Amino acid sequence: MFVGFMFVGLAIGLFLGQPGPGVLLGMGVGFIADEIMKRRKDMWK
Mean pLDDT, to the nearest integer, of 3-27? Predict the structure, then answer.
């Protein structure tokens, strides 16, 4: 999931002409989404 968000951020950054910030934004969103998914999975145990 994290890598997917990273590549989506890269694609958006390339579209806007700034690939570096796009990758960083995608990585940040990926870390947050990964943590939310881990917590939701643990909540249903």
Answer: 94
pLDDT at 1: 82
- C-alpha to C-alpha distance for 30 and 45, rounded to whole angstroms: 23
Q: What is the pLDDT of residue 18?
A: 94
Neighbours of 38 (CB within 10 A): 10
Residue 18 backbone class (left: φ over 0; alpha: ψ -120 to 50; beta: rest)? beta
Q: Buried b / exposed e across 11-28, counting CB within 10 Å, b at 16+?
A: ebbeeeeeeeebbebbbe
| Proportion of the chain in helix, strand, coil states, percent, rounded to 5 | 90, 0, 10
